[in-house]
Design brief:
Length: 330
């Protein structure tokens, strides 16, 4: 009850920010400490929280790379950013996060640009009411929200480590998760069922993918620490925002429910605030393997904190990616 009241009132936490803080406010306060010439890749930046994150970071002088399936939408976002910030550098490259081959092509194209990489924000996501499969024959929500981002991070990690070593600026990876991850129980998180569910439920699939995003953070943080890499990785819960994912599926949460629950909803800028805080704030320097909500470190579920579960998911994911990319079936 105390946390709910704090959320509704927008009471600031230890960071000085709370549920009502906006991305503009958070990034403005960080302005004096943001190094120049940073480069950020932001998935899902053609709308919603991702587009707002890109706009605000560009306003603070960060070079933005937008991986996009819809290049037309990406071009519109670029135009909007540059109308507000004429000096902003925005690069658009094609990607389909549900396709490992497409993610691989994107990474090769980005690395060929020989740009530094300071910030990677794994923000893109889908919510699929009906059971769909990717071209790799993986359930679409899991393929897009988790598997594609895991592989994207793996392919770009050496570039981030290299950039951090050359510049002395710690790299930051951010997985956008959701509080809905806590709905998943241990007996409902089976890798083979995530890939090819027998009894599909869209909400459950979304929650499972968001749990996987946090487990990815936990295990990657351990690997980065073991190699003494100057790169941090954290997960964030943006809050409940009426983004394109929800608007496209009125059966999931209807407009009437949104009207009734309007006091619980965040604006897009409030939803992007935690991502911007973890991406830029000097207070998060060196913090890794954590979960943030309302711009403050928060608690995730016991399952999300399970080191053995994180390690198991990591191994299963790496084996799957290797099989799909290097041992394709006819």
């Amino acid at each position: 009850m105390k946390e709910t009241l704090r959320y509704l009132a927008g009471i600031a936490g230890p960071s000085g920010y709370g549920s009502k803080s906006t991305a503009e406010q958070v990034s403005q306060d960080c302005c004096s400490s943001v190094p120049s010439h940073l480069t950020a890749i932001i998935t899902g930046a053609t709308s919603g929280i991702g587009a707002e994150t890109a706009r605000v970071l560009a306003k603070r002088g960060v070079r933005i790379v937008i991986p996009a399936r819809d290049l037309g939408k990406a071009a519109e976002v670029k135009d909007e950013i540059q109308r507000e910030s004429p000096k902003a550098e925005v690069i658009i490259l094609e990607i389909d996060l549900s396709s490992l081959a497409s993610v691989n092509r994107f990474c090769s194209e980005f690395l060929a640009l020989r740009l530094p990489l300071n910030i990677l924000i794994n923000n893109g996501g889908v919510f699929s009411q009906a059971l769909e499969y990717s071209e790799d024959k993986i359930e679409m929500t899991f393929a897009t929200n988790y598997l594609g981002h895991h592989f994207l991070t793996e392919r770009l990690l050496d570039k981030m480590v290299e950039t951090a070593a050359q510049t002395g600026i710690r790299g930051r990876i951010i997985n956008v998760s959701s509080v809905i991850h806590s709905w998943v129980k241990r007996d409902g998180f089976c890798f083979n069922q995530l890939l090819n569910p027998k009894n599909y439920n869209g909400t459950r699939a979304y929650a499972q993918s968001k749990l996987a995003n946090i487990l990815h953070v936990k295990e990657l943080a351990r690997h980065l620490k073991a190699r003494n890499a100057r790169v941090s990785v954290n997960a964030v819960h943006p809050g409940i925002v009426k983004t394109g994912i929800i608007r496209a599926h009125k059966g999931f949460i209807t407009d009437s429910v949104f009207f009734i629950a309007s006091k619980l909803l965040k604006s897009t800028s409030q939803g992007a605030s935690t991502t911007c805080y973890v991406a830029l704030s000097p207070e998060v320097e060196g913090v890794s393997g954590k979960y943030f909500a309302d711009c403050n470190e928060s608690d995730c579920s016991n399952l999300a904190n399970d080191e053995s579960e994180a390690r198991k998911l990591w191994k299963q994911t790496r084996l799957l990616i290797h099989r799909l990319l290097y041992q394709p079936t006819a």
